[in-house]
Design brief:
Layout lengths: L7 H9 L3 H14 L6 H13 L3 H4 L2 H7 L21 H9 L18 H13 L3 H14 L5 H13 L3 H7 L5 H14 L6 H14 L9 H18 L3 H9 L3 H8 L7 H15 L5 H5 L1
Helix pairs in contact: 2-3, 2-7, 3-8, 7-8, 7-10, 8-11, 11-13, 12-13, 13-16, 15-16
């Protein structure tokens, strides 16, 4: 577990170590099957998998990336075929967001397991069943890592979490736990998921009122609370930017007074949250059909 947080070289060596990832996944699967999601070894395994999933999309070799991703549509020869992990233009992002992963292998090996739906379901199961905060946080954090990029892998993982594995109820429950790090990681994961336009209506329906409910009424506490509040505002921005219906949902959940109060807190300590709230307000105002409701 300590070695897995030793930086890019350490992660690379551990990902390449034959049988290591498979063994970790095998152990955690067994713990869930035996209804023992709270033992210390399971926590250690999940924390290692969490660390090995960090910056996975960026750090995989280009040659390996090309063998994982297949373009399922004919791209005209005039288009430059983008590298999966290089810098991306907006058009490339849109194209890759549209490109599904190849059909999953029924028996993944090694690094392939890190974003396979089997492990995604394991994380969601641990989020729902474990009572150890570190195990919950590591499971949420692994999913946050896997949904953090802009290539096809993060969007495929996001679709699995939201639509195939019905993960939102388990993640939503973590918004209301008392442990601040678990709550913060759950919010960060939802912020990542909410960037996927095809999932926004599902996410808004399931968790938007909960996100509003955990927004502070006014002045915030610690740096961590400020960061969590900023992430909530950006998630709400993603969900409401293109949807008047979601903006109305925020309004009916009594979110507007909270967002206004946060935006007006201009102390340096809370500037990140204040800026995020201001961006959200600006976006909400773009829904002209709601202006009279806002004024009321």
């Amino acid at each position: 577990r300590n070695m897995s947080s030793a930086g890019p070289e350490g992660r690379k060596k551990m990902r390449e170590c034959e049988g290591l990832i498979d063994s970790l996944v095998y152990y955690v699967q067994g713990a869930i099957a035996d209804h023992e999601p709270n033992d210390k070894a399971t926590e250690n395994c999940v924390c290692i998998l969490h660390n090995l999933s960090y910056q996975l999309e960026i750090e995989l070799p280009e040659s390996y990336a090309q063998s994982i991703y297949m373009q399922r549509r004919n791209i005209s020869s005039n288009d430059k075929t983008p590298g999966c992990f290089g810098s991306r233009s907006r058009k490339v992002k849109e194209k890759q967001q549209d490109t599904p992963l190849p059909e999953e292998k029924s028996n993944p090996r090694g690094v392939e397991s890190l974003w396979h739906s089997t492990l995604i379901r394991i994380y969601l199961s641990l989020i729902a069943k474990s009572t150890r905060n570190y195990t919950q946080e590591a499971s949420l954090g692994a999913l946050q890592n896997l949904t953090a990029g802009t290539g096809p892998m993060p969007f495929a993982v996001a679709r699995t979490v939201v639509q195939k594995a019905n993960g939102l109820p388990s993640i939503r429950a973590m918004l209301h736990v008392s442990h601040p790090a678990v709550k913060k990681t759950a919010v960060s994961l939802l912020r990542n998921l909410s960037r996927n336009t095809s999932l926004q209506s599902d996410i808004a329906r399931e968790v938007l009122p909960d996100l509003v409910s955990i927004l502070p009424e006014s002045v915030l506490g610690s740096d961590a609370a400020c960061e969590t509040t900023a992430s909530i505002c950006y998630a709400l921005f993603n969900l409401t930017q293109s949807s008047s219906h979601s903006a109305r949902l925020l309004l009916s959940a009594q979110g507007l007074p909270k967002v206004i109060a946060i935006s007006m807190n201009d102390s340096n300590m809370f500037s990140k949250a204040s800026r995020a709230a201001s961006v959200l307000l600006y976006s909400l105002w773009s829904h002209t059909d709601l202006h009279s409701a806002y004024k009321k």
